[in-house]
Amino acid sequence: MRHGVILINEQRLKWVFLGLLAVVLALAVSYLGKTAPTARPEASSNPTGPTQAESAMQGFRFAQDEKNASWNLEARSAEIGDGGRTAKLEDVRIIVRNSDGWEVTATGSWGFVALETKDMEISGGVRAVSSDGYTFTTDQLRWSARNQTLTTDEKVVMDGPAVIVRGTGLVVHAATKRVEVLRDVETTFKP
């Protein structure tokens, strides 16, 4: 060894590199947890999301456990944008639970989440299934973390054990399990 030169074998160099990579990833995750959007994502039938992705990842997961409800968000991929305030998602699944254990699982082709407010939107062949046997289909669905509601302004079909309801607009109150179809309501009772 020469004076001032440190020799590192290839194996040790690999571990140093992996350690530095782990520190960078931990700092990035910590930064994303502390940054926040000032508003929820705009509703859109064909969302475009952040104009330029600042980072991207596969296997995105995000969860919140609140006083009256909890939710989990999973996506096949996510593009983080707007200074770490929003995530554009692909192949999305949201599970919302109230304090009684009742839950709704909603899936869609793409979506957005505002990382500070935890407001979300999913679009593209949205299908939501409740733990008490109801299925909702629509083109777009929003979750308001503050109000603990799932909403849409689009056409919706609610298929339950004894009834099928078609209409436009939907509000699902997670805390109370109350469901409202807002306009143009057609109800068919099953035999």
What are the defining features of this structure?
191 residues, mainly beta, lipopolysaccharide transport protein A fold, 9-stranded antiparallel sheet, 1 helix, 9 strands, 13% helix, globular, disordered N terminus
How is this structure best described in words?
With 191 residues, the protein is mainly beta. It has one domain (37-189): Lipopolysaccharide (LPS) transport protein A like domain (lipopolysaccharide transport protein A fold). It has one helix spanning 10-34, and strands at 55-65, 69-81, 86-98, 103-114, 120-130, 135-144, 149-159, 163-173, 178-189. The protein has a 9-stranded antiparallel β-sheet, with no helix packed on it. Strand 5 and strand 6 (135-144) form a beta hairpin. The protein is globular and about 50 Å long. The termini are far apart.
